[in-house]
């Protein structure tokens, strides 16, 4: 579904990605791993043409995304839940959810069933929600665009343990629907319970790819590339 090959990208004159490659198959969950500052968010921004590409290719369902502006890429079926959530604080929960909604299987009622907390607060301003509730809101907003691929950048970072469990349960439920997911999260143990394959990025380069079972069985690899 998503094929990234030899991707190079830069901020201004500073190159950040050096030949990164990864693939996300239909209905699969792929973990994008690496310490902070290694290029994960830059890669996600590059999917949307929000950073300057120097080389390589990004293809989605066989189509080259390089010539397309970000809004056109979103319409192709890629939805991003960005680091920091970026909800509209002055709009109500319901207004946040429907602001970018597109026709499809995911409708408002289905999202509210997935996140009962949002149903309880649907008239509240988005800015009044807790951090965990804002993350639920950001995921729900992305789902209402009816994407083929959902990209979650730092899915549970900074959230309380109880809220993290709710987000993991949500991702597990989404996996059962068959949606493809590219997932970034620092909590490796829980992430490996959900991902099918994983890609590790180190200093802007993809340095390892393999199954979750392989990575779980290689603590030396975890220490080398993921330990703080």
Structural overview:
The protein is an alpha/beta fold and 228 residues long. It has a domain at 1-77 and 150-157 and 184-228: Rossmann fold (3-Layer(aba) Sandwich), CATH 3.40.50.300. It contains ten helices and ten strands. It has a six-stranded mixed sheet with strand order 6-7-8-3-9-10. The longest helix is centred in the last third of the chain and has 17 residues, at 161-177.
Quick overview of this protein structure:
The protein has 228 residues and is of the alpha/beta class. The protein has helices spanning 40-47, 70-76, 93-98, 108-114, 116-120, 131-143, 161-177, 188-194, 212-216, 219-225; strands at 2-11, 14-24, 29-33, 52-60, 63-64, 78-81, 149-152, 180-183, 197-202, 205-211.
Helix-strand pattern: EEEHEEHEHHHHEHEHEEHH
Beta content: 25-35%
Q: What's the overall geometry? A: globular
What profile does the largest beta sheet have?
6 strands, mixed
Helix content: 25-40%
End-to-end gap: 32 Å
Low-pLDDT runs? none
CATH third-level topology of the domain at 1-77 and 150-157 and 184-228: Rossmann fold
Supply the number of helical segments: 10
Strand order of the largest sheet: 6-7-8-3-9-10
The count of strands amounts to 10
Structural class: alpha/beta
Give the C-alpha Rg.
Answer: 17 Å
CATH class of the domain at 1-77 and 150-157 and 184-228: Alpha Beta
């Amino acid at each position: 579904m998503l094929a990234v090959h030899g991707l190079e990208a830069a901020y201004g004159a500073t190159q950040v990605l050096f030949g990164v490659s990864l693939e996300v198959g239909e209905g699969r969950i792929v973990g994008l791993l690496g310490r902070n500052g290694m290029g994960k968010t830059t890669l996600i921004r590059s999917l949307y043409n929000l950073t300057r590409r120097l080389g390589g290719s990004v293809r989605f369902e066989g189509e080259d995304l390089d010539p397309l502006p970000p809004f056109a890429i979103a319409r192709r079926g890629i939805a991003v839940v960005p680091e920091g959530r970026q909800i509209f604080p002055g709009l109500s929960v319901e207004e946040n959810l429907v602001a970018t909604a597109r026709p499809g299987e995911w409708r408002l009622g289905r999202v509210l069933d997935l996140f009962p907390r949002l149903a309880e607060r649907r008239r509240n301003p988005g800015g009044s929600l807790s951090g965990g509730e804002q993350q639920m809101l950001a995921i729900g907003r992305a789902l209402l665009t009816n994407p083929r691929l959902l990209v979650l950048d730092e899915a549970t970072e900074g959230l309380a343990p109880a809220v993290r469990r709710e987000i993991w349960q949500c991702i597990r439920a989404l996996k059962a629907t068959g949606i493809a997911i590219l997932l970034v999260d620092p909590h490796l143990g829980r992430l490996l319970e959900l991902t099918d394959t994983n890609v590790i990025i180190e200093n802007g380069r993809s340095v390892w790819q393999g199954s979750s079972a392989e990575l779980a069985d290689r603590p030396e690899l975890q220490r080398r590339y993921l330990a703080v």
